[in-house]
Fold this sequence. Notes:
Elements: H1 2-21, E1 32-38, E2 42-48, E3 65-70, E4 73-78, E5 82-88, E6 91-93, H2 96-100, E7 112-115, E8 125-131, E9 135-141, E10 160-165, E11 167-173, E12 177-184, E13 191-192, E14 209-212
Antiparallel strand pairs: 1-2, 1-3, 3-6, 4-5, 4-7, 8-9, 8-10, 10-13, 11-12, 11-14
Pfam families: Crystall
Function: Crystallins are the dominant structural components of the vertebrate eye lens.
Keywords: Eye lens protein, Repeat
Amino acid sequence: MEELSAITDRETIFAAKMAQTNPQPPQLGPWKITAYDQENFQGKRMEFTTSCPSVTECSFDNVCSLKVECGAWFGYEHTNFCGQQFVLERGEYPRWEAWSGSNAYHVERLMSFRPIGSANHKESKITLFEKENFLGRQWEVLDDFPSLQAMGWGNNEVGSMKVHSGAWVCYQYPGYRGYQYIMESDHHSGDYKHWREWGSHAQTFQIQSIRRIQQ
Length: 215
C-alpha cells in the first residue's frame, strides 16, 4: 500500500509540472504505462497514467524496459520530450531494441514520454505534399504503406503534411525503419509545413513509409 501511495503522489507531482512546462489540451484517456529501470521488467518499477517530462525525477537513470497496458504513447530519447521519438503501442518492450526497432542509430535512452491523445487507428487521414508549405503534388493517405514509392509516390521525400484525423508514425526508410516521426491531428493543428516541425531530431525531408498508430 505504501508503494501505491508513493506512486500516486509522484504522478500528481508530474502532472502539475507537466502543466507548467508543456501545456496540452485535456486528454480523455485511459492510459497506463509501467516503466522499469532494468531490462526484462526487472528492478525498480513505476506506473504512469499521464505525461512524464523526466524519468530522473522519479529516481530512474533510464528506462530499460516497459509495458504499455493502455493507450498509445510517445517516447523520447531525452528529457522534456526532446530527441529521437519512438511510438509505444500496447504491448511489452523488454529491451530498447523493442521500441527503437531497426532504427540502426543505437539509442538506448528513453528519458521522457507522454500519451498520444489523437491516436485512432480506425479513423485516420493524412495528406502528403511534395513541397513544403503544402505545395506541389499531394496524396491523401488512409491506410498503412510500408513503401510510399512502391505505391506511387514519386520520390523518397515529403515536403509537408496535413493530419486531418488520428495520429501517424512516419519512417525515414521503407519497411518502417529509420528515424520515427509522430504526426498528430491535435498538434500544430495537424499542419506540418516543414521537416523542422516533425521533431527536434529531424534533419531531412526523407520519409519512405507511413502507418497509423494503434490505440
